[in-house]
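TL;DR need C-alpha coordinates for one chain.
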Amino acid sequence: METNTNRSIELAGERIVSFTDRGQPVAFIFRKITLEDWKAFFAALIFESESSAEGRVTRADTKTAGLALVDSCLEHVRGYKNSDGADVEQLTNWKQRLPYGHRVKAAELLQDAGVSPVLSEDSAFVIAVGEDRVVLRAKWGCEAPGTMTEFQGLSHSFAQPSAEHQRRYNRAMSETRIVASANGSRTIHPSRHPLMMELYDELVRSVDGYQVSGIALGENLPLIRSMMDGMHKVMAVQQLFAPAIG
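>> reply
TL;DR here they are.
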Protein backbone atom coordinates (compact mmCIF):
# COMPACT_ATOMS: atom_id res chain seq x y z
CA MET A 1 0.00 0.00 0.00
CA GLU A 2 1.35 3.41 -0.97
CA THR A 3 0.97 6.31 1.46
CA ASN A 4 0.35 9.71 -0.06
CA THR A 5 0.66 12.75 2.20
CA ASN A 6 1.18 15.41 -0.47
CA ARG A 7 -1.53 14.97 -3.07
CA SER A 8 -5.25 15.51 -2.60
CA ILE A 9 -8.13 13.10 -2.98
CA GLU A 10 -9.99 13.75 -6.22
CA LEU A 11 -13.70 13.70 -5.41
CA ALA A 12 -14.99 14.01 -8.97
CA GLY A 13 -15.13 11.22 -11.52
CA GLU A 14 -14.68 7.49 -11.16
CA ARG A 15 -13.38 5.75 -8.08
CA ILE A 16 -11.24 2.61 -8.09
CA VAL A 17 -10.68 0.04 -5.37
CA SER A 18 -8.17 -2.75 -5.91
CA PHE A 19 -6.92 -5.78 -3.96
CA THR A 20 -5.42 -9.21 -4.54
CA ASP A 21 -6.81 -12.72 -4.12
CA ARG A 22 -4.22 -15.48 -3.98
CA GLY A 23 -1.73 -13.18 -5.62
CA GLN A 24 -4.01 -12.07 -8.46
CA PRO A 25 -4.93 -8.35 -8.57
CA VAL A 26 -8.48 -7.27 -9.32
CA ALA A 27 -10.05 -3.83 -9.52
CA PHE A 28 -13.56 -2.45 -9.17
CA ILE A 29 -14.26 0.81 -11.01
CA PHE A 30 -17.19 2.83 -9.66
CA ARG A 31 -18.89 5.97 -10.84
CA LYS A 32 -18.81 8.81 -8.33
CA ILE A 33 -20.60 7.66 -5.20
CA THR A 34 -23.03 10.46 -4.45
CA LEU A 35 -24.50 11.61 -1.16
CA GLU A 36 -27.78 10.00 -2.21
CA ASP A 37 -25.95 6.69 -2.66
CA TRP A 38 -24.52 6.99 0.85
CA LYS A 39 -27.92 7.89 2.29
CA ALA A 40 -29.38 4.72 0.75
CA PHE A 41 -26.47 2.73 2.20
CA PHE A 42 -26.91 4.16 5.68
CA ALA A 43 -30.69 3.58 5.55
CA ALA A 44 -30.07 -0.10 4.74
CA LEU A 45 -27.85 -0.77 7.75
CA ILE A 46 -29.50 -3.09 10.26
CA PHE A 47 -28.86 -2.87 14.01
CA GLU A 48 -31.69 -4.42 15.98
CA SER A 49 -32.62 -7.03 18.55
CA GLU A 50 -35.80 -9.06 18.95
CA SER A 51 -37.23 -10.59 22.11
CA SER A 52 -39.78 -13.36 22.32
CA ALA A 53 -40.72 -16.24 24.59
CA GLU A 54 -37.94 -18.27 22.95
CA GLY A 55 -35.23 -15.74 23.80
CA ARG A 56 -33.45 -12.74 22.30
CA VAL A 57 -31.87 -12.40 18.85
CA THR A 58 -29.52 -9.57 17.86
CA ARG A 59 -28.85 -8.58 14.26
CA ALA A 60 -26.06 -6.33 13.01
CA ASP A 61 -25.92 -6.46 9.22
CA THR A 62 -23.71 -4.03 7.31
CA LYS A 63 -22.74 -6.39 4.49
CA THR A 64 -26.13 -6.38 2.75
CA ALA A 65 -26.06 -2.59 2.52
CA GLY A 66 -22.48 -2.73 1.24
CA LEU A 67 -23.37 -5.24 -1.47
CA ALA A 68 -26.27 -3.01 -2.59
CA LEU A 69 -23.89 -0.03 -2.75
CA VAL A 70 -21.48 -1.98 -4.92
CA ASP A 71 -24.26 -3.21 -7.19
CA SER A 72 -25.72 0.26 -7.74
CA CYS A 73 -22.46 2.13 -8.35
CA LEU A 74 -20.14 -0.41 -10.02
CA GLU A 75 -19.44 0.26 -13.70
CA HIS A 76 -16.46 -1.94 -14.64
CA VAL A 77 -14.09 -4.56 -13.26
CA ARG A 78 -10.58 -5.64 -14.17
CA GLY A 79 -8.84 -8.94 -13.58
CA TYR A 80 -11.81 -11.23 -14.26
CA LYS A 81 -12.53 -13.59 -17.15
CA ASN A 82 -15.35 -16.02 -17.81
CA SER A 83 -14.46 -19.73 -17.97
CA ASP A 84 -14.40 -19.52 -21.77
CA GLY A 85 -12.14 -16.48 -21.68
CA ALA A 86 -14.88 -13.98 -22.53
CA ASP A 87 -15.15 -10.60 -20.87
CA VAL A 88 -17.14 -11.05 -17.66
CA GLU A 89 -19.02 -7.79 -18.26
CA GLN A 90 -20.69 -9.37 -21.30
CA LEU A 91 -22.47 -11.90 -19.11
CA THR A 92 -26.08 -11.46 -18.00
CA ASN A 93 -26.22 -10.13 -14.42
CA TRP A 94 -22.42 -9.96 -14.44
CA LYS A 95 -22.19 -7.99 -11.19
CA GLN A 96 -23.95 -10.72 -9.22
CA ARG A 97 -21.61 -13.32 -10.76
CA LEU A 98 -18.54 -11.72 -9.22
CA PRO A 99 -17.28 -13.61 -6.14
CA TYR A 100 -19.29 -12.73 -3.05
CA GLY A 101 -16.16 -12.17 -0.96
CA HIS A 102 -14.74 -9.81 -3.57
CA ARG A 103 -17.89 -7.68 -3.57
CA VAL A 104 -17.80 -7.55 0.24
CA LYS A 105 -14.13 -6.51 0.15
CA ALA A 106 -14.86 -3.79 -2.42
CA ALA A 107 -17.66 -2.44 -0.20
CA GLU A 108 -15.32 -2.39 2.80
CA LEU A 109 -12.69 -0.44 0.85
CA LEU A 110 -15.30 2.14 -0.21
CA GLN A 111 -15.96 2.71 3.49
CA ASP A 112 -12.29 2.83 4.50
CA ALA A 113 -11.82 6.13 6.31
CA GLY A 114 -10.56 6.64 9.82
CA VAL A 115 -9.00 9.09 12.20
CA SER A 116 -5.34 9.99 11.93
CA PRO A 117 -3.75 10.87 15.27
CA VAL A 118 -2.48 14.43 15.41
CA LEU A 119 0.31 14.46 17.96
CA SER A 120 2.52 17.33 19.04
CA GLU A 121 5.77 17.19 20.99
CA ASP A 122 5.91 20.98 21.12
CA SER A 123 5.58 22.10 24.75
CA ALA A 124 4.17 25.41 23.49
CA PHE A 125 1.37 23.65 21.59
CA VAL A 126 -2.04 25.17 22.42
CA ILE A 127 -5.42 23.70 21.56
CA ALA A 128 -7.44 26.55 20.09
CA VAL A 129 -11.01 27.19 21.21
CA GLY A 130 -13.84 28.41 19.01
CA GLU A 131 -13.15 25.92 16.25
CA ASP A 132 -12.27 22.25 15.96
CA ARG A 133 -10.06 20.36 13.52
CA VAL A 134 -10.36 16.69 12.63
CA VAL A 135 -7.78 14.82 10.58
CA LEU A 136 -8.66 11.65 8.69
CA ARG A 137 -6.79 9.04 6.70
CA ALA A 138 -8.37 7.00 3.92
CA LYS A 139 -7.65 4.43 1.25
CA TRP A 140 -8.68 5.99 -2.06
CA GLY A 141 -7.72 4.91 -5.57
CA CYS A 142 -4.75 2.85 -6.65
CA GLU A 143 -1.57 3.48 -8.57
CA ALA A 144 -0.57 -0.18 -8.94
CA PRO A 145 -2.83 -3.20 -9.50
CA GLY A 146 -3.82 -4.91 -6.28
CA THR A 147 -2.90 -2.02 -3.99
CA MET A 148 -4.68 0.99 -2.56
CA THR A 149 -3.25 4.45 -1.98
CA GLU A 150 -3.62 5.68 1.59
CA PHE A 151 -4.04 9.42 2.03
CA GLN A 152 -3.17 11.00 5.36
CA GLY A 153 -3.59 14.50 6.71
CA LEU A 154 -7.14 14.94 5.38
CA SER A 155 -8.15 17.95 7.45
CA HIS A 156 -11.68 19.13 8.28
CA SER A 157 -12.12 22.36 10.25
CA PHE A 158 -15.41 23.04 12.02
CA ALA A 159 -17.12 25.83 13.87
CA GLN A 160 -17.62 24.97 17.51
CA PRO A 161 -20.87 23.00 17.89
CA SER A 162 -23.64 24.93 19.61
CA ALA A 163 -25.71 23.58 22.49
CA GLU A 164 -28.40 22.70 19.96
CA HIS A 165 -25.94 20.76 17.80
CA GLN A 166 -24.79 18.88 20.87
CA ARG A 167 -28.37 18.11 21.91
CA ARG A 168 -29.27 16.75 18.46
CA TYR A 169 -26.17 14.56 18.38
CA ASN A 170 -26.56 13.23 21.93
CA ARG A 171 -30.22 12.40 21.51
CA ALA A 172 -29.64 10.66 18.19
CA MET A 173 -26.82 8.57 19.62
CA SER A 174 -29.00 7.39 22.52
CA GLU A 175 -32.17 6.77 20.52
CA THR A 176 -33.75 3.32 20.25
CA ARG A 177 -37.19 2.33 19.05
CA ILE A 178 -39.19 -0.52 20.55
CA VAL A 179 -41.87 -2.09 18.38
CA ALA A 180 -44.29 -4.36 20.25
CA SER A 181 -45.82 -7.47 18.71
CA ALA A 182 -48.03 -10.33 19.86
CA ASN A 183 -44.99 -12.54 20.40
CA GLY A 184 -42.60 -10.05 21.99
CA SER A 185 -40.83 -6.86 20.95
CA ARG A 186 -38.20 -5.61 18.55
CA THR A 187 -35.63 -2.97 19.52
CA ILE A 188 -34.34 -0.93 16.58
CA HIS A 189 -31.24 1.25 16.67
CA PRO A 190 -31.89 3.73 13.84
CA SER A 191 -29.06 4.97 11.67
CA ARG A 192 -27.45 8.16 13.00
CA HIS A 193 -25.47 8.72 9.82
CA PRO A 194 -27.94 11.05 8.02
CA LEU A 195 -27.87 13.39 11.04
CA MET A 196 -24.07 13.31 11.06
CA MET A 197 -24.03 14.41 7.42
CA GLU A 198 -26.41 17.24 8.28
CA LEU A 199 -24.22 18.35 11.18
CA TYR A 200 -21.16 18.22 8.93
CA ASP A 201 -22.77 20.57 6.40
CA GLU A 202 -23.85 22.98 9.14
CA LEU A 203 -20.50 23.09 10.97
CA VAL A 204 -17.75 22.64 8.36
CA ARG A 205 -15.68 25.71 7.56
CA SER A 206 -12.81 24.40 5.44
CA VAL A 207 -11.03 21.23 4.35
CA ASP A 208 -7.54 20.35 3.20
CA GLY A 209 -6.46 17.34 1.16
CA TYR A 210 -9.48 17.24 -1.19
CA GLN A 211 -10.05 18.56 -4.69
CA VAL A 212 -12.68 18.56 -7.44
CA SER A 213 -11.41 18.46 -11.04
CA GLY A 214 -8.01 19.52 -9.76
CA ILE A 215 -9.29 22.51 -7.78
CA ALA A 216 -8.68 22.43 -4.00
CA LEU A 217 -11.91 22.68 -1.98
CA GLY A 218 -10.40 24.92 0.71
CA GLU A 219 -13.17 27.13 2.08
CA ASN A 220 -15.61 26.59 -0.80
CA LEU A 221 -18.54 25.60 1.40
CA PRO A 222 -21.12 24.90 -1.35
CA LEU A 223 -18.67 22.57 -3.09
CA ILE A 224 -17.60 20.93 0.17
CA ARG A 225 -21.21 20.22 1.10
CA SER A 226 -22.16 18.84 -2.31
CA MET A 227 -18.99 16.93 -3.20
CA MET A 228 -17.45 15.67 0.05
CA ASP A 229 -17.71 11.88 0.36
CA GLY A 230 -20.55 10.84 2.67
CA MET A 231 -18.43 8.40 4.67
CA HIS A 232 -15.81 11.10 5.26
CA LYS A 233 -18.54 13.44 6.52
CA VAL A 234 -19.70 10.81 8.98
CA MET A 235 -16.22 9.90 10.20
CA ALA A 236 -15.26 13.56 10.68
CA VAL A 237 -18.39 14.33 12.73
CA GLN A 238 -17.95 11.20 14.84
CA GLN A 239 -14.50 12.42 15.76
CA LEU A 240 -15.70 16.01 16.26
CA PHE A 241 -18.06 14.82 19.01
CA ALA A 242 -15.77 12.10 20.39
CA PRO A 243 -14.31 12.35 23.90
CA ALA A 244 -10.72 13.51 24.36
CA ILE A 245 -8.28 10.66 23.62
CA GLY A 246 -5.59 11.62 26.13
